[in-house]
Amino acid sequence: MNLPAELKKTKDKIQQYAEGYGLDFFETIFEVVEFDELNEIASYGGFPTRYPHWRFGMQYEELSKGYTYGLQKIYELVINNDPCYAYLMKSNKSVDQKLVMAHVYAHCDFFKNNLWFAATNRKMMDQMANHATQIRRFIEKYGQETVEDFIEVCLSLENLIDPHAQFIKRKNGETDEKPEEAPKKKQPVRLKSKPYMDSFINPSEQQNSDNGDIEGETPEQRVKYPLQPERDVLEFLMKHAPLEQWQNDILAIIRDEALYFFPQGQTKIMNEGWATYWHSTIMTEKVLTDADIIDYADHHSGTVATGGGRLNPYKLGLELFRDIEERWNKGKFGKEYDECEDWHEKRNWDRKLGLGREKIFEVRKMYNDLMFIDAFLTPEFCREQNLFVYAYNDRNNLYEISDREFKQVKEKLLFSLTNFGQPFIYVEDANYLNRGELYLRHQHEGVDLKVDEAQDTLQNLYKIWSRPVHVATILDENSVCFSYDGREHSQTEME
């Protein structure tokens, strides 16, 4: 910890205030860095050491240009680890450092106590460094271009994981291994011929073919694995794809890191809302001096500002936590409240229960964003926050408000949060047509696959599976199957 004496004194005070409010966090280590160092760490996903790859350089350039041209500025960066590491920009004003510290302690509390982070690696700082060392060794042995190209293929598939995999414990004896034995293939029929004509009548290509029919085979008897559809495509590839050991290790690294970062995506609204709630509470009730108020108000309002047709997770999370606290303080929940049809009575409802603070700590512990919105978004909240659905109008080439109905607003929010709006893809059969081809299924949730992205994904899957790959989906209300055989894409109608 390289904090100056005055900043360390401020940090100790804010830590005491946070603990006094009931926040519970791992030891938190603050480091003060220059703006370019903070941009570099941010480009690595918050870690000072990552494996070498061009995408990190691209992200660093984007962050640096955004800072240079005044388009963006990183005020804080905190890592889910034990101990937690947080970075402060050296050029921040004193009031910014106070705000950031209060914000960071709330994030650390969320990391430690939220259920969806319970299975994450709390020593990920060390693990990331180990991953970097391992991949650098592969680069020395196999060449940078070869290794980086394979990493790029893996990164394009990193969302094909099961985010619940870390919570799943298999029963004894349960397995998804490939069946060891398959029905024997019958020998191709040989026609009678003179010796000198045999190569023409019974061509060797046909005799040596490994794609013949299986003796006595029916569709039900074909060897199929996995026995049940598997959502974790990367794990399945690690177990069954014909990869060299170094490739398998890289795929495992990409999956491991994807599983670590996934809960942060699952709880973005809650996490930022929780941190904003507590930095606001701590700053306004304990920390602010008269000289700080204007700067604090300016920076806090910038944090929760909305506009440009985007949803601000800081604002939505903050206001929803405040709404929950108020509702549980006043008793605006339960059967009696829900059945009340008098709008004026509901608006002024107050049973003086005082359960709000206890409730938001419970919510912080148990929920993710999807559950949070589903359970606590109300029609009253949508009206107060002016939430609506917008759509593109082809007639005037503008985006317009298309609906203000609570049901539509909630549905749109929930849909965007379900798996981050990304498709659910399952491994259905890795011995498709009994030819060892990979057959995937898209669980259609109302939105079609983007054809170009699906084709790119199939190409990269082929590079790992080394045999044709397919994905079944619904396109324009028709069942179709996209395929890639290593040379060209095809699309077939399905019944």
Annotate the secondary structure layout.
Elements: H1 5-20, E1 28-33, H2 35-43, H3 54-68, E2 76-79, E3 84-89, H4 94-113, H5 124-142, H6 144-155, H7 198-201, H8 204-207, H9 233-240, H10 245-266, H11 268-287, H12 293-303, H13 313-330, H14 335-339, H15 343-347, H16 356-366, H17 369-376, H18 379-385, E4 389-393, E5 398-403, H19 406-417, E6 424-432, E7 437-443, H20 451-465, E8 469-475, E9 478-484, E10 489-493
Parallel strand pairs: 1-3, 7-8
Antiparallel strand pairs: 2-3, 4-5, 6-7, 8-9, 9-10
Please describe the structure with a list of short key phrases separated by commas or semicolons.
13% strand; 10 strands; 4 domains; 20 helices; alpha+beta; three-stranded mixed β-sheet; single chain; five-stranded mixed β-sheet; 495 residues
